[in-house]
User: Which sequence fits this backbone?
């Protein structure tokens, strides 16, 4: 992946807004973790998984024994087909940046799957009920394989 030169900020407000975005503990991620924890499920958050190619990935939620990695993806940062937007300013920076994020996600998924992990990606706009259903289905299908 190429390093893109950081664009000139368009305003102090835009800079503040973009810097306030978190890598971990986003609202959708915290809500999902709280729901899973209330159900009695135990997992690791932001768990470092080192792949044979030397890269380390950090799923938002990891069920390590079952090798299930869950990512809660933001619609903007991961180019959601339903809600993703393209910024109106600094497009020379943002379009390739967002494309790199999508490509990195694909490579992460492939690397994890090649190493025996199951990957679940959940968009931030997906309801907690739907996210919970997907995760529980995966956990239940994995438990029959033990």
Assistant:
């Amino acid at each position: 992946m190429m390093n893109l030169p950081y664009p000139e900020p368009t305003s102090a407000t835009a800079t503040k807004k973009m810097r306030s975005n978190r890598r971990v503990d986003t609202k959708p991620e915290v809500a999902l973790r709280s729901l899973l924890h209330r159900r009695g499920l135990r997992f690791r958050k932001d768990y470092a998984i080192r792949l044979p190619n030397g890269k380390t990935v950090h799923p938002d939620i990891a069920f390590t024994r079952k090798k299930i990695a869950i990512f809660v993806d933001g619609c903007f940062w991961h180019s959601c087909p339903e809600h993703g937007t393209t910024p109106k300013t600094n497009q020379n920076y943002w379009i390739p940046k967002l494309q790199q994020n999508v490509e990195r996600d694909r490579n992460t998924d492939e690397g994890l799957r090649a190493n025996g992990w199951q990957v679940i990606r959940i968009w931030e706009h997906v309801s907690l009920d739907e996210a919970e259903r997907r995760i529980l289905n995966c956990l239940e299908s994995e438990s029959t394989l033990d």
Observations:
- Residues 70 and 120 are 5 Å apart (CA to CA).
- The beta strands are 44-45, 49-50, 56-57, 61-63, 68-73, 118-123.
- The two ends are 38 Å apart (CA to CA).
- The mean pLDDT is 88.
